[in-house]
């Protein structure tokens, strides 16, 4: 909705200037392993991967995480996302679902030749706490966070029985926002990530003057 009108296939860009200190951040709870999956056949327009390493996509992915393809579920994909390395950093690329032919739909852009690494989970609560602590130190305290939390991350938190602890971290750090099916961090489209814009205390900005 813009200027009272509803439009589709559109985006709204808002440019804001402020004297309040702010910081754009992201956090996830996965680290790459040495298991590599190279996209060798795909349908980029529909975000579908048909082959990894010249093998059926579902079978190759399942083998890399230690299960058989028939056992793959949304929880499998949430627990074992894949990551891509861009500019020295790793970014999550989450699988949405498996099709009857063994192809895999992704929540984000994908193409032939992309090299993915299977990711291993680390402690979600500690990773989130560390990220929010770092943001607080950068800003001299947090007044508010506009956050975007992936629904797959929430599913994973419930599965690991840490959803309550994550929710408490968001509460004490004044996080307001949305559950999302894709997150944006600068120029990157991400999955299974908590991204946000954190705003510092106004008096911290005044003290810096």
Describe the structure.
- The chain has 209 residues and is α+β, with helices and mostly antiparallel strands.
- The protein folds into two domains: 22-29 and 123-208, no CATH class; 30-121, no CATH class.
- The protein is built from six helices and 14 strands.
- Strands 2, 3, 4, 5, 6, 7, 8 and 9 form an eight-stranded antiparallel β-sheet that branches.
- The chain is globular, with a radius of gyration of 19 Å.
Index terms:
alpha+beta; 2 domains; 4-stranded mixed sheet; 6 helices
Helix residue percentage: 25-40%
- The helix/strand order is EEEEHHEEEEEHEHHEEEEH
Taken together, the total number of domains comes to 2
Number of helices: 6
Largest sheet: 8 strands, antiparallel
User: What is the arithmetic mean of pLDDT?
Assistant: 93
Hey, roughly how much beta strand do the residues contain? Answer: 35-45%
As a whole number of angstroms, the C-alpha radius of gyration is 19 Å
Number of strands: 14
Query: Low-confidence segments, ≥5 residues, pLDDT <50?
Result: none
Assembly classification: single chain
Amino- and carboxy-terminal Cα gap? 38 Å
Helix and strand composition category? alpha+beta
Shape: globular
Outline the fold blueprint.
Blueprint: E1 22-27, E2 30-43, E3 48-52, E4 55-56, H1 57-65, H2 74-79, E5 82-86, E6 89-93, E7 95-98, E8 104-106, E9 115-121, H3 124-139, E10 142-150, H4 151-159, H5 163-172, E11 175-180, E12 183-185, E13 188-190, E14 194-200, H6 202-208
Parallel strand pairs: 10-11
Antiparallel strand pairs: 1-14, 2-3, 2-9, 3-4, 3-8, 5-6, 5-9, 7-8, 10-14, 12-13
